[in-house]
Amino acid sequence: MTALHTALLALSWFDYGMCEGGFGEEERSSVLPRDTLDWRGIFRRQLFLQVGDDSFGQNYLQNFKDNKVDTTFVGVTKEAATGVAPIVVDDAGENCIIIVAGANLKMTPGDVERAEAMIRGASVVVCQGEITPAATLTALRLARTHKVKTLMNAAPADASLDAAIIEHSDIFCVNESEAEVLTKLKVKTREDAEQAAEALLQRGSRSVIITLGGDGAVYSTAEGHAHTAAQKVTPVDTTGAGDAFVGALAYYLAYHPRLAMKEMLHRACQVATASVLAPGTQASYPTRDQLPSHLF
């Protein structure tokens, strides 16, 4: 399960366009690339979200339908517009995003509780930071009650994030800038990331992942730290790379749980790296036949 999702407004220095996106929906798209006969045949996905009663929301619903996503818990509200996120991408492929939450903030703990059966039957519950903390925490608590593994992607970062969200996360995942916001520590190197991860472990998470863009990712537990390198490439558009990583990791947690975590991270980094070689978010995510067979 992912928490709320937004429509995405994509803007670069070279062009302008609109497409579906949002942290949660991109994570869903990553674990379920666009070929119906590929990953979708082995990964059942359900989303829990709300969109506005507007053109963006209708486009989103059509996108779900086209991708055969279960929309049982997809709501449409007249109280707010579908969330949007203007994005600027520079010549180096780096991005800057402004999130306008909209319908995302209409999700309540009661809404989440109505999806308890979905959570109970899941292999992995993936949450992120675009809905209210109360709704996110409810999802994490229900997952723990039913012994379902949780993966919390705390993006966008919130310096005042409820400590209980960290405590109820089996895996707490952020990028380097998000780690800086949450810990007030500089995160520029692998060693910096390990220090920030230690701070987050002390706040209650069972394990922490800090992604480092082209430098891979650090995985930390009470037993120590492990670093996974990423392949060096020239990025076209880094937007959505973190979501590709999280989505791929969720897939491995659900369907290859016996893999060592370092191997899961290595494979997730390969998927994320592939996503930065094309413009856009969901549209840049590779299908299974575009990825090396050893990833599966």
TrEMBL record:
Protein name: Ribokinase
UniProt EC number: 2.7.1.15
Lineage: Eukaryota, Metazoa, Ecdysozoa, Arthropoda, Crustacea
Cofactor stoichiometry and binding remark: Requires a divalent cation, most likely magnesium in vivo, as an electrophilic catalyst to aid phosphoryl group transfer. It is the chelate of the metal and the nucleotide that is the actual substrate.
Family in the record: Belongs to the carbohydrate kinase pfkB family.
Keyword Nucleus part of the UniProt annotation: yes
Alphabetical list of HAMAP family matching this protein: Ribokinase
GO annotation terms (biological process): D-ribose catabolic process
PROSITE patterns linked to this entry: PFKB_KINASES_2
Leading EC class: transferase
Molecular function terms from GO: ATP binding; metal ion binding; ribokinase activity
Gene3D superfamilies per the UniProt record, alphabetical: 3.40.1190.20
A GO cellular component entry from the record: nucleus
Binding positions (ATP): 175, 211-216, 242-243
Notes on activation and inhibition: Activated by a monovalent cation that binds near, but not in, the active site. The most likely occupant of the site in vivo is potassium. Ion binding induces a conformational change that may alter substrate affinity.
Location within or outside the cell: Cytoplasm; Nucleus
Pfam family of the protein (one): PfkB
Pathway(s) of this molecule: Carbohydrate metabolism; D-ribose degradation; D-ribose 5-phosphate from beta-D-ribopyranose: step 2/2
Main location: cytoplasm
Top-rank taxon, per record: Eukaryota
